[in-house]
Amino acid sequence: MSSSSAATAAAAAPANPRSRVVLASLIGTTIEFYDFYVYATAAVLVFPYLFFPAGDPTTALLASFAVFGAAMVARPLGAVFFGHLGDRVGRKATLVGALLTMGIATFLIGVLPTYAAVGWFAPLLLVILRLAQGFALGGEWSGAALVATENAPKGKRAWYGTFPQLGAPIGFIIANGLFLIIAALLPSDDSNSALPSTEFLEWGWRIPFLFSAVMVIVGLWVRLRLVESTAFANASKRGKLQRLPLASVFKSYWKELILGTFFMLATYVLFYLMTTFSLGYGTKPGDAPVPGLGYAYNTFVLMLIGGVVFFGIFTMLSGPWADRWGRRKTLIWVTSAIIVFGLLWVPLLSAGFAGVMGWLIIGFALMGMTFGPMGALLPELFPTNVRYTGSGISYNVSSILGAAVAPFIGTALWGAGGGSPFWVGVYLSVMGVLTLVALLVSKETRDVDFDEAGLESSAVL
């Protein structure tokens, strides 16, 4: 074989085998989302009782959601820090650092003293560790998405981009399934109560947080076997890496940053309303001052897991659709459906068990269809030398505008509506309109070349 043929073959060969790409991008985000959802579940089920002083239950729940949202504020900071490392040092080392940070913070939450033991020092420590979780997740997602998309075969980038996205439903199922098993083994003394048992509140809730250490060890083993993608290796060899990726991305790709942020807005609001908010709404007694659906915790979590299965299925389906029809067209149709879905909350949630299950299935199916293509779309907005930073900032700034406030706003609107979810659904529809506008003023990115030269044209029409 001639030297030119050998070079061509080497250039065409993937830096990592497909199985390694799938595992590294999937297992890392599964662990990260598992850790995040363990907190989200505890924010509804446990923390209002253990980390905040006794008083109005709604106020305690809002305080717990406020701490939940604090992590979203830390996520853009994590995106900047880990993005800088990812665009300067490489994807592999950065992903290992993000995974360790998340795992350590989650484990430490599992050993925290409660408010009854140390007073306000307990919620202060909880906030610090929650910020560490958000900081880590800020660097995790974009790195995992880049591992998948920068190693994808031609024409299959959106499909490969769904692998890290699939970590969200899998992490949710593992986290909530574990909580469900523990709650079943430690049942409440009152079978009609939505509250967990005394044993669960005393120590059972800690098990899912401590279990994260086992998952982190597995994730590290997979990620330490990665090698850098060809795109990043070529950019490094040719001296294309930026000394300050953050400055470069704000100077040359600020429009793409804004677009990417609004692309994710409806996705974030939908997901955190369908998970964190819905868990509080679904398990709140129907005769409470601000009534909910009145389901027992175990029952509603099983219903949630049933809905999340559709989240995973449609996440995988969305990748081939986005490769075939384009990211923009696919997401325009899905976002339009989300807007309509937000206006149908009252009739669906008023139709008994079948209506509630329909609401969960439709909501999570739409979630999969909007979340799946993002694994390719956001990285495609930026060139290799600022791709980690740019995609990470867009993804995580949107978390402040969407996820950080969604459970809080949803709970407040639920209370203001006297227990009716109507205004919560309207809130989702309004956020969907903002995302739809961003999609309409953008252009298709499916055929963008993933090399170190960068984008040939703006993502704005």
Describe the structure.
With 461 residues, the protein is mostly helical. It has one domain: Growth Hormone, Chain: A (Up-down Bundle). The protein is 76% helix and 0% strand. It is built from 22 helices and no strands. Helix 4 crosses helix 7 and helix 13 runs antiparallel to helix 22. The chain starts with a helix and ends in a 21-residue tail after the last helix. The N terminus is likely disordered.
In short:
This protein is mainly α and 461 residues long. 76% of the residues lie in helices and 0% in strands.
List keywords for this structure.
globular; Growth Hormone, Chain: A; 461 residues; mainly alpha; 22 helices; disordered N terminus
What order do the SSEs take from the amino end to the carboxyl end, as H and E?
HHHHHHHHHHHHHHHHHHHHHH
**Helix count, DSSP H or I runs of 4 or more residues:** 22
C-alpha Rg (nearest Å): 22 Å
Number of domains: 1
State the end-to-end CA separation.
46 Å
Mean pLDDT: 84
Query: Segments where pLDDT lies below 50 for 5+ residues?
Result: 1-13, 452-458
CATH topology, by name, is Growth Hormone, Chain: A
Secondary structure: helix percent: over 70%
Regarding CATH, which class?
Mainly Alpha
Choose one word for the global shape.
globular
Strand content: under 5%
Write the layout of secondary structure elements.
Blueprint: H1 3-12, H2 18-45, H3 47-50, H4 57-88, H5 91-109, H6 115-118, H7 121-149, H8 157-185, H9 198-204, H10 206-223, H11 230-237, H12 245-252, H13 254-263, H14 265-283, H15 297-325, H16 327-342, H17 345-349, H18 352-371, H19 374-380, H20 384-401, H21 406-416, H22 422-440
